[in-house]
Amino acid sequence: MPDGAAFDVIGVQPDAFARVATFRSDFLNLSLSELMDSIKVSGNVEPILLPSDADEIGVWLHTDDNVPNLFAWVRIRTGGGIETVVTLGGIEPGPWRFQSASVDGFVPPLELLGFQVFEGASSSTGSETIVMVDDVTAVSISDDGTRSETVVASFDEQGGWKSLRTNRGADSTIGLFRGEERDSNSAGAPTAVCAGSIARTLKARCP
User: Fold this and answer.
1) Where are the domains of the chain?
2) Bridge partners for 152 per DSSP
3) Tens of pLDDT along 160-185?
4) How crowded is residue 75: how many other Cβ atoms within 10 Å of its Cβ?
5) Pick from 88, 68, 182, 187: which is nearest to 132 by CA?
6) What is the pLDDT of residues 99-152, one digit of tens each?
7) Rounded to a whole number, what is the largest CA-CA distance in the chain?
């Protein structure tokens, strides 16, 4: 598909669609209910919700690759059902560091939907890079400035996380890497993301 091409995607809810749609009997040797059953996926993972008093969301990041204009984003869904991206800033080579951004002003509860490595490249072909990700964390800040941290996704297991395809196909991968501890306080099971996006989805669709 050419870069930037527009297209329409139609999604249906298999449990409900057969009750509201009509179906030509000569179209397929299956009933509409049987067809919907064939595309039904079970095994929803539990949503990852931030604490109601969260002021920031952040993640531990590490890369050895020096890629200009490389940024970390998290995608969240607000209590109003609006999906939005929060940028955590640029990703620079060096030791592990915690990068966070404010979620003040968003209507709770906030649900973590995914993590994205974005490269602001002028061409459609991005740079090959590996970014290590660990402990997505919600930060609550009290009136006296005390910061309280809650890990909402530890990546100790891949669970419902999967890489998302782009317009260039399956060019992003995700995998668990158990190496050196991030620091003395973390057992660490960081996830490697190869210049792309990972998102929570259905267990049945995980690699």
Assistant:
1) 1-40, 48-205
2) none
3) 677 765 555 456 777 777 655 665 34
4) 17
5) 182
6) 999 999 999 999 998 888 888 876 666 788 888 888 899 999 999 999 999 999
7) 70
Whether residue 25 contacts residue 100, with contact meaning beta carbons closer than 8 Å, is answered with no
Structure tokens at 168: 């260039």
CATH number of the domain located at residue range(s) 48-205 in this protein: 2.60.120
Tokens of 36: 């919907």
**What Å distances lie between residue 80 and 54, 76, 115, 152, 196, CA to CA?**
16, 11, 20, 20, 27
Between CA 97 and CA 102, with CA 101 as vertex, the angle to 5 degrees is: 150
Instruction: Please say whether the beta carbons of 53 and 137 come within 8 A.
Output: no
Q: Are strands 174-176 and 94-102 parallel, antiparallel or unpaired?
A: unpaired
